[in-house]
Amino acid sequence: SKGCVAAKDYEVAIQEILKIAVGLFHSRLTAENAYPDRITQVSWAKEAWAEACKECKAQINFNNEVIQLITNRMWHLTSELKSKIRPLVEVMYGFESSAKTAIKARNRKLVEDLTEDFGFCYKSLGDPANDVPHKGLYEHKIIQKAVNIAFYKDKRDEGVRFLQYFQPFPVAGKALVLTVIEACINEWSSGERCDIQFSEPVYKPVYRTHLAQLHRFGEYTK
Predict the structure, then answer these.
(1) DSSP of 121-184
(2) Which regions of the chain are under pLDDT 50?
(3) Over the stretch 133-173, which tens digit does the pLDDT of each residue have?
(4) Using an 8 Å Cβ cutoff, are 179 and 206 in contact?
(5) How many CA atoms lie within 13 A of 152 on its CB side?
(6) Concatenated DSSP letters of 194-209
(7) pTM of the entire structure?
(8) Of 68, 96, 196, 203, which has the most beta carbons under 10 Å away?
(9) Which helix (H) or strand (E) holds 71?
C-alpha cells in the first residue's frame, strides 16, 4: 500500500547496508536496552546506518523510510530469540506435550515452581515443601546454552559478527535471554504449550526486573 515501505524495494547495495544496519541495531538493543524510547531508537538506527555505510565503503544518506525500516525490526529480535530458545525450555525443564490430565497438571505446577522467585534461574529448585532452598542462582545450564544458540551458533549470528557488543556477553543481553526463557515457560501455563505474544507491555517490566536483579547479583558477588 502507498506509504508502506519494504526492504525489497531498495536496490541490492542498499539492501546489504540495511542488513548490516539491522544487525548493528539488534546488537545494540541486546547489549544496552531492549526497550529504548522512540528518540533513542531513531538515534541508534541512524548510528547503525552510518556504521553500516562505513563497513560497505559507501556513502548513502538515510531517509525517514530507512530509519522506519530499521526500527520496525525491534519485534523481530525477540521473536527470533523465542523461536531459538523455545525448544531448549521444553527439553531442559522437562515439559511434556500430552493430552493426559496428570501430565498437564504437572506442566502447570512446573510453570508455577519455575516462575516463582526466579526459580528457573537456579541450578536446583530445591524442595520448598521440606524447606530445602533454591540453589545456584544463574547457574542453570539453559542460560549459557540459550546465549550460545541465539548469538554464537554460526558466523552469521550477531554475537560473532558484531563483537564490539558481545565481548564479554552484556548483562542487558543476559536479562533479555532470561525474559525470553520466562516467556517460553509461560507458554505452558495452561498445561499445554500455547503460543503467546511477546508484547512490550507484558515483558518490558519482566526484562527490567531481571536486569535489576542481575545488577544486584553482580554487586553482591564482586
Answers:
(1) GEEE--BGGGTB--EEET--HHHHHHHHHHHSSSTTSHHHH-HHHHSS--HHHHHHHHHHHHHH
(2) 1-3
(3) 999 999 999 999 999 999 999 999 999 999 999 999 999 99
(4) yes
(5) 12
(6) ------HHHHHHHHHH
(7) 0.92
(8) 203
(9) helix 64-71
